[in-house]
Fold each of these.
Amino acid sequence: MKQANSSTPKLSRLREFPNTPGGHVGFLESTRDLVYKATAMKLGQVALRIPDDVVKEAVTTIPWKEAYARASCLADLPEKVRNRVTDVLAWDLTVGTVDQISELLRPAVFDLRDAYQRHLQPERKDNFHIVRTAGDYIHAVKNGKVPVARDPKAPALNASAASMAAPGVEESIALAAIDQMHALLLVLGGDREQTIEVLAARVQLHSDMAYNEVCRMPLAGFASRALELSPGIGANARQPQNGSSDQTVSSEEMPLPEVGRQQQADQPNENVLPSIEGNHVQVAEQPKSPSPHDQSTLISTDLNEAPVAPTGFLGATALSQSLKIHPTRCKAFKRKLGRMREAKKLLDDDWWEPSERKHRAPAYFYNSASRHIQHLAEKYVGPPGLETLPTDE
């Protein structure tokens, strides 16, 4: 049975909880805590041998009518949230109903505090711009807007995470391209507007395209082309120039690693063919590649490193970068990956543990081509709050 609120009580504790929306919310939180303590006292009455009159006094001293009056004063907050609190405060507070009221009041006051904090935030101008093409990104940079892959407006209050769709393929590609363009502008430095115009001009000249055609390019293609044409950053930076001091070292001049010499001294292996690349000797076995768990076919190529991981196997950090995991979700992705490995939800070919681990080297390596790992990565490519949150099944 609900109580009648015919008379409005005089407000108390105004020094601590003034007659303001913030003071009213604080008073309701204090009332919520008193109800919770009275409930705990009632539930532990038998075990702690608490007298009935003590429990009754804890319930009757709660300023229940004043709480209802203060909640009714919050006219600026959403009506749905305010009514949820007043509906609970309209109950008759007794020793028999205090535990049920506590269960209903706590989430209602939590939502009330959340609504009040949102109300305090000043309304701001929409400063986001959804991008799909190079022109969209150029427009965002030149107008001081934040380029995004989807509308980042906050969901409605109490909206469940499951109701928000995961980013699609197009949005995932746009997210990766936006990150790449942000990193490129950061490395090049200078005025961002001027830098993006210079990049667009380079792509236009080297691709023999009109400026409008450059603006219509998908952002991912524009980012890749701009990176290639950036001196000292793109693919040309990794190629030795004419007159460079880098020289090809023949296999006769390059000493084999200790492990390779030891194997050559013990017995020659006709299936192991050395090849020279850069300043390292790479050893490959033919005709088939070794299994990630077959330690006998893995040969270290550096005296200061642990055994080399099989092709396509990366540490958790490198794997996060390769699969375009959002920077803010890398730790969660790596924790989930470890739990899947421990729960044996990954196949033997999906991961590899080296027999020896050097200092600061990854303890486990993961197959970047594994469909299980790629399926998990799809849940972590977007920022938190804009995709379906992964479950710990």
Amino acid sequence: MTQEDKLYPLELYIEKFDEINRSGFVQNWLDDSLKLNINIMEDKAKKQVPNIDEVKSFILDFRFFVQDREPCSLRNLHSHYQKLSLPSEIVNDFQKQRDFFNTILDQEVNFGKQGKGNYTFGDIFWSYFYGQYAHSNNPEKRKKVKEWKETNFMESVTGFHFLCTLYNLFFVLKRIRNINIRAIEEIKSQ
């Protein structure tokens, strides 16, 4: 593998991360808090969240980290790291962050699927991601998002969980960016 081949996915990752780091989603909301107040009896919600354009813009680049057709997706980077001659500390740090990314998605939220157990953050995240934002060609996920939007309560709660998950995943991606910088420095010194 040439040095260019070794560096390309890592550099692409950094480029795409830097784009989302400059996005309105991050710049306007990173130091501000997301807020959600719900009146269940009246099915009303008061939200302080990013606007839809900020979310859509963020998702356009975020998808590079989760869609496997991209060389800088976390799954492809995992394979790439296995092929590189890097100190085990760097490879292990990457793997820990990738595992943490998945752990966030696997955590249960505190409301359920109408008698079928609780949703996970991943259930909500992937439903919005593939059912509304990144694509709309997954009928099952699209149907789920439409069901949630039938009441202010479910739309607000699931939408809020989606945004909180995006925030949490952003910080994992940020740590991976820094690991990639260390990997690039190591490759260039070889």
Amino acid sequence: MSSLPPSKNPPMEDQEEIWASVIKEIIRDIPPDWRERVICEVMTMERPSLVIKATPFVLRDPGTFRLDNAKNEARSVLIQILVSAITNSHSPEGAAKVLFKRHAGLGHGSGWLPDYLAGLPGIQVNEKKCAALADKSVASKLRFAKVAEDAEA
């Protein structure tokens, strides 16, 4: 819980805009015909726990509130949550295979996580080892779904 009084938090509309903007970035790679069903399914799965798990996005220094910074913080939180889910449910090598899988044609850019981590301060990326793990990964089922949908169009 934040020790700041509720009045110090950005207005709810700003918080909703932050999260909606970041979630929009994620769902734009879901095939368009599936998006509404996927969002409805998530809401159905999460509805019983929303009251218990809901934690507002709290900015510590509302005096310097900037929407772009807040969106980047929200992205960072989501990345941490997703990576944690992968590493907590796999061995270190299994998690690396999942994280370093090549997703060319899906998502954005090269589709390979090490490309985005290389060069960041505090991170040393062994691209050869990442590539070897990626090459041991099973082909993406997401790719097959997207290819099948593209063929139908």
Amino acid sequence: MHQLSRWSLLSLLILCNSGIADNSQGSPQLAEWFERGTDLISPYAIYIDAPPADASTATAVNELEEGIDLLSKVVDAQPENWAAYWFIGKAYQALKQHQASVNAFRESYAIHRENPDVGRELVIELVCIGDTEGAVVVAAELVSDHPYAADLIANLGFAYLTNDQLDEASDAIDDSLRLAPRDPITRNMRNEINAVRNGKPPAQYCPY
């Protein structure tokens, strides 16, 4: 399962700050809420290449909830602001409130499906709430939109695995490895599929 890196987050923040400036109709308040909200959430957000700060402390919970409140004001004013919804989803993910995270990521995905990071997070959170069929649907849409993205094909394999579709999972992992044969995450997923085929009980695949 491939996740967002902090480098991808930096690119996303640059894009988001540019976009909110364009869409705020001259309102510095919206830009301030967005910047403050993302600053509060980012240290606790989960990325593949850096451990997050502990989100279980009282300070962390307060900061995450404040970040959610600020970004909720942004989406109230700008209902098409996919990035604010995305960060709300990351905040709820850090709080382990998976259904709320799904709801936010689903809003973001409906607005900005072309960004694969949005759909990737939605797939993970759908698995966390047990909606593995929904995870397969979204993961398949991502591959349809980005047919040569090895990580997204591997994520489809992951979604199939969680939905107990082992043949489909194996085929997707084979396709991904043809594009990126040395990817360690995908190779580990191949091992997990083989282990489940050989009788290993499926793991708890929600990573959070």
